[in-house]
């Protein structure tokens, strides 16, 4: 087991936990060499281990020829991409929790790792503390996965749970999750579905060897849902969840990121709060479900450190660089819906079941749904997750 010298980029929520664990560790397999921060004046009290240096110069720290591993915890796709690219061009092993970067540039970065003898690992980029990437790459490697679906954003799931169980408004639930430290100051990517979409892009690439774009996924978030939809869902015994899914059917790859209403028999129905969960359907194992914390520095830091431990053992955890731009993908083409209209339900449609102001539709195409909305002003709809 070779001693690994490490550059740590970022000392925020996750970076601080990783730093503390590295300093406290008695594992002789690694040594902290550099800690890169943007505002050194905020970290004057940091007690660096012997031989480690604090700097704002990421190039010096990343390109140091004695450094073996770069842990990128800056976030975003600006400086982070520059630093990761430089590290891979210098043959370094890179660990990142940066879902935005992996989703938008993962194929390019995988190729650099392969060309220059480095590695790119990103267990922490999807589902927080759930080792889902390792499960896909190792535990399910002999299997053929047909479908992956999941609740992949702890912030949005907490908000939906608080609205459902506590009767909070969207704004009140958002303030509560922020106060508990499970949401960013700017939660736009969480509540609009972008964060979830990036994670689904990563899982789709790993499982189906296809590269989706954010534009293709066209995610729908939870920030537009009305109190009437929540009330109707509760009346029907349903729970609203922000669900991400990709599945193979008859040679086509289908995908969706959107809030859906789940019935009690669905494996994700009971997943509440900041918990994340992933359901995988495969030929050999069948249906398997993986749950764990999806928000918080400690859970994500654990995944970062797990990648470091694997690299220290000499394991190669890079994804495939042979992924193809998807040609035959399509969004979900036919679904059933929960529909709500306080002034009366549409006529001329055979509902599966109905109440006074809400009903469950038969399977509708996007054209059917568009026509239904156009002819029924005030109608609100929510897909059923089945």
UniProtKB/TrEMBL annotation:
Pathway: Amino-acid biosynthesis; L-threonine biosynthesis; L-threonine from L-aspartate: step 3/5; Amino-acid biosynthesis; L-methionine biosynthesis via de novo pathway; L-homoserine from L-aspartate: step 3/3. The active site is at 199 (proton donor). GO terms for biological process: methionine biosynthetic process; threonine biosynthetic process. Its EC number is 1.1.1.3. Residues 131-308 form the Homoserine dehydrogenase catalytic domain. It catalyses: L-homoserine + NADP(+) = L-aspartate 4-semialdehyde + NADPH + H(+). NADP(+) binds at residues 10-15. One of its GO terms (molecular function) is homoserine dehydrogenase activity. The keyword Amino-acid biosynthesis applies. The keyword Amino-acid biosynthesis applies. It is an enzyme of class 1 (oxidoreductase). Keywords: Amino-acid biosynthesis, Methionine biosynthesis, NADP, Oxidoreductase, Sodium, Threonine biosynthesis. Residues 10-122 form the Aspartate/homoserine dehydrogenase NAD-binding domain. L-homoserine binds at residue 184. NADPH binds at residue 99. PANTHER family: HOMOSERINE DEHYDROGENASE (PTHR43331). Belongs to the homoserine dehydrogenase family. This is Homoserine dehydrogenase. It comes from Limosilactobacillus fermentum NB-22.
């Amino acid at each position: 087991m070779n001693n690994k010298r490490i550059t740590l980029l970022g000392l925020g929520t996750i970076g601080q936990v990783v730093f503390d664990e590295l300093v406290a560790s008695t594992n002789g397999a690694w040594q902290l060499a550099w800690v890169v921060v943007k505002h050194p004046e905020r970290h004057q009290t940091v007690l660096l281990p012997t031989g480690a240096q604090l700097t704002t110069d990421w190039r010096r720290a990343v390109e140091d020829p004695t450094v073996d591993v770069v842990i990128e915890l800056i976030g975003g796709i600006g400086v982070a991409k520059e630093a990761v690219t430089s590290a891979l061009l210098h043959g370094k092993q890179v660990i990142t929790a940066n879902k935005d970067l992996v989703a938008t540039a993962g194929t390019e970065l995988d190729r650099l790792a392969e060309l220059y003898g480095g590695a790119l690992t990103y267990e922490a980029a999807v589902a927080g503390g759930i080792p889902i990437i390792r499960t896909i790459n190792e535990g399910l490697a002999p299997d053929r996965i047909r479908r992956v679906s999941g609740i992949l954003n702890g912030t949005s799931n907490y908000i939906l749970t608080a609205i459902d169980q506590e009767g909070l408004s969207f704004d009140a639930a958002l303030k509560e999750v922020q106060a508990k430290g499970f949401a960013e100051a700017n939660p736009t990517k969480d509540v609009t579905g972008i964060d979830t979409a990036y994670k689904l892009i990563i899982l789709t690439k790993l499982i189906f060897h296809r590269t989706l774009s954010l534009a293709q996924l066209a995610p729908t978030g939870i920030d537009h849902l009305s109190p009437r939809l929540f009330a109707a869902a509760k009346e029907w015994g349903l729970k609203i969840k922000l669900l991400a899914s990709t599945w193979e059917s008859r040679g086509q790859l289908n995908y969706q990121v959107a809030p859906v209403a789940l019935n009690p028999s669905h494996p994700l129905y009971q997943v509440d709060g900041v918990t994340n969960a992933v359901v995988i359907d495969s030929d050999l194992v069948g249906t398997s479900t993986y749950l764990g914390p999806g928000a918080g520095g400690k859970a994500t830091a654990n995944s970062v450190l797990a990648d470091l431990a694997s690299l220290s053992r000499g394991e190669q955890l890079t994804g495939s660089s042979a992924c193809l731009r998807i040609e035959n993908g399509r969004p979900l083409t036919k679904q059933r819906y929960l529909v709500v209209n306080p002034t009366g339900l549409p006529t001329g449609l055979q509902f599966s079941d109905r109440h006074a102001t809400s009903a469950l539709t038969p399977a509708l195409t996007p054209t059917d749904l568009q026509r239904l909305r156009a002819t029924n002003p005030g109608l609100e709809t929510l897909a059923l997750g089945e």
